[in-house]
Amino acid sequence: xxxxxxxxxxxxxxxxxxxxxxxxxxxxxxxxxxxxxxxxxxxxxxxxxxxxxxxxxxxxxxxxxxxxxxxxxxxxxxxxxxxxxxxxxxxxxxxxxxxxxxxxxxxxxxxxxxxxxxxxxxxxxxxxxxxxxxxxxxxxxxxxxxxxxxxxxxxxxxxxxxxxxxxxxxxxxxxxxxxxxxxxxxxxxxxxxxxxxxxxxxxxxxxxxxxxxxxxxxxxxxxxxxxxxxxxxxxxxxxxxxxxxxxxxxxxxxxxxxxxxxxxxxxxxxxxxxxxxx
Length: 278
Fold this sequence. Notes:
Elements: E1 7-11, H1 18-27, E2 33-37, H2 40-48, E3 54-58, H3 59-64, E4 69-79, E5 86-90, E6 101-104, H4 109-122, E7 128-131, E8 143-149, H5 150-159, E9 164-167, H6 168-176, E10 180-188, H7 189-194, H8 196-215, H9 217-224, H10 232-240, H11 248-264
Parallel strand pairs: 1-2, 1-3, 6-7, 6-8
Antiparallel strand pairs: 3-10, 4-10, 5-8, 5-9
Helix pairs in contact: 1-8, 4-6, 9-10
């Protein structure tokens, strides 16, 4: 008797995935689907090295290695305006950051690329960049700004240390009139070819979890908000701005971002058109 193969799935356990992943943890009982939790940058490396079969990874990872992946339709981490957890915190206005040190989170390559596009292309300034611990940078006066994402961004936003807080999702939407897709569900193309029915089963489960999560958002907010010292109402308002679909407008926003990456040499032309599993 044939048994289903083990599926290695990468998942980001930030607050912004809770409407999807909180439901998955409580309702999906598949021992053959092994979930690995890590930051997006770690999952990027694991998926590229064939240590995962699929998972939530940075949009930039797909753009850099499209020959290895297919995208799962209608699943993402995205925002149509303010995202609330990807911020540039700055001691000065963004226009004044030319030549100054911006400390970058090492947790997400997509957000690193996005902040560079925003500063260099939208604001026309070229800072100096370093990667480091953004939570430890608040007392370092040599650091003029920090890029923080996910739960770290939520923590810093509550501390109100920096006079300027720039939501990268909002700036992107203001400048392009498009949503921004921070993470996609990417899959090893060879795994999809060998196991199309398993991919469809996982897709159905993700869509089911997303629907339940939307309907149970207040209770999810009560459960996960304390992880970053947010009360339930604040967490609920934050999660209302996070979207988990990949509809036509999201795909248009993703394509625009990839075009910027290609221009910057951070993505390859083969990433377009988008390679969607079907």
